[in-house]
Amino acid sequence: MGATGVFDAYLDGETLTFSLKDGNFVDDQTGATWNILGEGLEGEMAGKSLTPIVHGNHFWFAWGAFNPETLIYRGVS
Asked: Which of these, 9, 48, 52, 54, could form a disulfide with 40 (CB 3.0-4.6 Å)?
């Protein structure tokens, strides 16, 4: 089982973008490390939190059966 976290990337007047570096979520603007709960752990953003966005976790087979028009995009790794 996996886990998801969905957050508004706008914080302190700036829209953050994120990359996966050495298995960690890192924002490209400051190099701060974030966890799956949207909490800044290390760096300039330590102690800050992103605003959560309401979302659902679904098994693909159930989602795909009821939403066959769904498109899947693979991010750059």
From this structure: 48
CA atoms within 13 A on the CB side of 59: 4
Q: Is the pLDDT of residue 58 over 90?
A: no
Query: What does pTM read for this prediction?
Result: 0.73
Give 51's strand partners.
8
Residue type (1 letter), 57: N
Amino acid (1-letter code) at residue 4: T
Q: Which residue do the tokens 């799956």 mark? A: 36
**Does residue 17 register a pLDDT over 90?**
yes
62-71: per-residue pLDDT in tens? 999 999 999 8
Other residues' Cβ atoms within 10 Å of the Cβ of residue 29: 15
